[in-house]
Amino acid sequence: MNNVTVVDEKVLSDCLNEISRALLQADVQFSMVREMQTNIKNIVNFDELAAGHNKRRIIQQAVSNELCKMLDPGIPSFTPKKGKTSVIMFVGLQGSGKTTTCTKYAYYHQKKGWKPALVCADIFRAGAFDQLKQNATKAKIPFYGSYMESDPVKIAGEGVERFKKENCDLIIVDTSGRHKQEAALFEEMRQVAEVTKPDLVIFVMDSGIGQAAYDQAQAFKQSVAIGAVIMTKMDGHAKGGGAFSAVAATKSPVIFIGTGEHMDEFEVFDVKPFVGRLLGMRDWSGIMDRIHEVVPTDQQTELVQKLSEGTFTFRLMYEQLQCLMKMGPAGQVLSAFGAELMPKGNEKESQAKFKRYMTIMDSMTNAELDSTNPKLMNESRIIHIARGSGRTVQDVMEMIQFYKLFAKIWNNAMKRLKVPKKGSMNARSQS
Ligand code: GDP
Ligand code: MG
């Protein structure tokens, strides 16, 4: 083993430890973190790593790919077809968000022109039918349930029958999540499935349950053929590492996530951003959204590129000052974390100052502009730049001071935003 390999192995193990800590904090099961580590160690190509300029980035990319793979059970879930009747049964513990998610799922499809319907087969929880009725009415979705009937299997069967006759193409069956005895709950799920013959059974899990996800999913899977997972409450603190457990236990993919209590707070599950968030890049996607909102499409790539390069050169400052002065879209994004640079009420003064700094920078050499080191400009260079720009040495010094402040704010903001910086990885979340 040569020295280079030893160094790279150290980088790799440091990096993996850092990432593993983040994953465990996000509730990924220990055994799966171990599995990921083993796989990465097997696939990392040390030759490639040795030649790579950014080893940590290479490792992070490998981990990210590996995690995406672990969330892919290899078989796509059943996808209902518009116009053709499908029965979808929802299961999960009480409080996991089944009833809410049933409505969201129905509403999501209704907006796309489907004819969904809701069946309430939860007779255990008082008010279960009222809750579903309320949700369904609000979304103008037909529903079926009963205050009198005490047999959930019967209600489920009748509801599905009725909506089939009415030519609904998405019949959604909401079930109970609690029973006096656990065994009875699972037997009830089995019977409801037997009578409704669902095309797809969706396991609904609260993203906050963490490590318990595996056992829960496993328990339900033993009585009904789960084909997909929906994770709720992703708007909260939980990062949803339990998804790995649910996927492993059910061999089914996560298809949607719930991101709030409202009907439209529901998103198609997208594995890449999910994994990014697990690795601690959550806020980065927030600033990305902001960029997509306010920056014209043709300028987005360039700005993102700059943000992620993470080296705050004089030239970058020059460009950012231009943005701040114009208060164009990029300036709007940047001013969000640069308020100290441009105090409110002093806009006019700031603009004059920025203009002065830019004039001074026009007299800097390319090497100086592309550097992050103010010391590159010694006394004679400073005098030269002052002369060239028609300003005083004092002005040049002030500009350099301003650069130092701007660089500090910029780099802190990048840390806070957890932008994957060149040469570093920020895998750990600060929250
Ligand atoms: P069920 O017992 O499984 O039917 O669960 P419910 O649908 O009644 O939901 C339980 C609670 O979780 C309710 O207060 C819902 O508003 C809430 N809830 C469900 N999904 C979400 C979500 O994605 N985000 C948030 N913040 N709350 C949710
Ligand atoms: Mg419910």
Summarize the structure.
One of its GO terms (biological process) is SRP-dependent cotranslational protein targeting to membrane, translocation. This protein is 56% helix and 10% strand.
Structure characterization notes:
It holds the Pfam family SRP54_N. The structure is a single chain. This protein folds into 3 domains: 68 residues, SRP54, nucleotide-binding domain (Four Helix Bundle (Hemerythrin (Met), subunit A)); 187 residues, Rossmann fold; 134 residues, 434 Repressor (Amino-terminal Domain) (Orthogonal Bundle). Helices cover 56% and strands 10% of the residues. The chain has 19 helices and 8 strands. The C terminus is likely disordered. Guanosine-5'-diphosphate binds next to helix 5. The site of magnesium ion has 5 residues, from helix 5.
Topology, element by element:
Blueprint: H1 3-25, H2 30-43, H3 46-51, H4 55-70, E1 86-91, H5 98-111, E2 116-121, H6 128-139, E3 143-144, H7 152-165, E4 170-175, H8 182-196, E5 200-206, H9 213-221, E6 226-232, H10 242-250, E7 254-258, E8 266-268, H11 271-278, H12 282-294, H13 297-309, H14 314-326, H15 329-335, H16 347-361, H17 366-369, H18 379-389, H19 393-417
Parallel strand pairs: 1-4, 1-5, 2-3, 2-4, 5-6, 6-7
Antiparallel strand pairs: 7-8
Helix pairs in contact: 1-2, 1-4, 2-4, 5-6, 7-8, 9-10, 12-15, 14-15, 14-16, 18-19
Query: What is the name of the CATH topology of the largest domain?
Result: Rossmann fold
Q: How many domains make up the 3D coordinates? A: 3
The largest sheet is: 8 strands, mixed
CATH architecture of the largest domain: 3-Layer(aba) Sandwich
Distance between the termini: 39 Å
Q: What is the name of the CATH class of the largest domain?
A: Alpha Beta
Extract low-pLDDT stretches. Answer: 281-285, 418-431
Secondary structure: number of strands: 8
The proportion of residues forming helix, as a percent range, comes to: 55-70%
What do we call the CATH homologous superfamily of the largest domain? P-loop containing nucleotide triphosphate hydrolases
> Judging from the principal axes of the Cα atoms, what is the shape?
elongated
Kindly report the average pLDDT value: 84
Enumerate how many helices there are, as a single number. 19
Order of helices and strands: HHHHEHEHEHEHEHEHEEHHHHHHHHH
Radius of gyration: 28 Å
Bound molecules: guanosine-5'-diphosphate, magnesium ion
Protein name: Signal recognition particle 54 kDa protein
Subcellular location: Cytoplasm; Endoplasmic reticulum
Domain SRP54-type proteins GTP-binding: 253-266
GO cellular component, one term: signal recognition particle, endoplasmic reticulum targeting
